[in-house]
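Page 42, continued from yesterday. The earlier attempt failed because a stray header line got pasted into the input along with the sequence. Redoing it now with the clean sequence only.
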Amino acid sequence: MKNITAGTVFKLAFGIALFFGATTAHAQHGNCGHHPLRVVYCGHDGLSLRCGPGTHNHRLGTVHQGATLYPTGESLWSCGVLWQKVAVRGYMKIGGCSKYLTHRGNGFWEVTWYRPGDNFVSMRSATSSRSCLLAKIHTGSFVRSHYDRHGYLEAEAEGWVAVRTASGKVYVR
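This time it went through. Structure tokens are written below.
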């Protein structure tokens, strides 16, 4: 039989405490898991995609009802709302006569299109302006893409969305 030293007991106890502490912290944040989520309520303007959890954070764009969101990180409660870090994926037109997106290197593209009253580029479910609108990504925001498909980028925008409120209003499930 192997001798068990005080150091071994400490390491075992520390490992168990670390495991249960991480599990408890994970549960307190209310992580939504890594299964895809669907936008089920977004109002007329869409559900805000923000640079951080909370309405005080900059709005990167909006996602629309029916869009699929992919959890990319933690979720947490802020001001009575459960927020989840997500990615929305779709196709964005690079541009025609005007440049909608500008390549900034390393797979990042900046939304550069702007005209008064129209400061976003649509993200759609396919490479057609008639396909389903998934999101509107605002001017100055960045998307990630390594694939140009006939003038469209297969793009991914990442940010935070409200999942549900403490009172029970659900935005994505």
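Notes: The longest helix spans residues 6-29.
Reminder to self: strip header lines before submitting.
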